[in-house]
Design a protein that fits this description.
Layout: E1 3-7, H1 11-23, E2 27-31, H2 34-44, E3 48-52, H3 60-70, E4 75-79, H4 84-92, E5 97-100, H5 105-123, E6 128-130, E7 133-136, E8 141-144, E9 147-148, H6 153-164, E10 170-171, H7 172-178, H8 188-202, E11 212-215, E12 219-222
Bound molecules: calcium ion.
Length: 228
Amino acid sequence: MTTVAVVEDDTHILAAVTRGLTGRGHVVLGATSGLRALGEIVDQRPDVVVLDLGLPDIDGLELLRMLRAVTSVPVIVATARDDEDAIIRTLDAGADEYVVKPYSANQLDARIRAVLRRVREDDTEEPMQVGGLTMDARSRVASIDGHPMDLSRKEFDLLWHLATRHGEVVSKRELLAAVWRQPYGGPEKTIDVHLSWLRTKLGESAKTPRYLRSVRGVGVMLVDPHAA
Ligand code: CA
């Protein structure tokens, strides 16, 4: 049984989504304001959150950042805006998936199952070590030279994917498909932004790379700098 928190100020949409998800066997926690939702999500610990970006009391992206500061619960953002910039900002702020309004209960249910499948896949992976970098997908803890790294969900997923393929050049297209679930291409800028954050957290830069080597026009590779 999956508990889904649905944050949506339009009571008609909330009622329809609740009906659709309940009919598919989910338990739904509804909230019509952002701040009430934040408290409810912290208290009730749902398995997944569906977040409307257009809320009356707080900007949806701001709420997403607040959520990310306190929980790693998967978040599916529901947005009326289907332009690329809005989607990039949403993914950068820590969303796992998005649906563009209006969406059907079937489509939302499929997204929910997809994000939960990803979380469960992570739970079965063995810890990994590349040089001074260690990563554990189960606890979602990464450390560099023994120091814990403070990574967002996407930063962790990106670094984990590169670590599983360490020593190989991974294309941005593959990263978009594997980490951002965009198999048909999409905002490559968002990868560059996440790579630059990762470099800072790994204590390196594009000019003086250690773990993350960009291969122009091809992709990026994670290497053990001590083995080179
Ligand atoms: Ca709204």
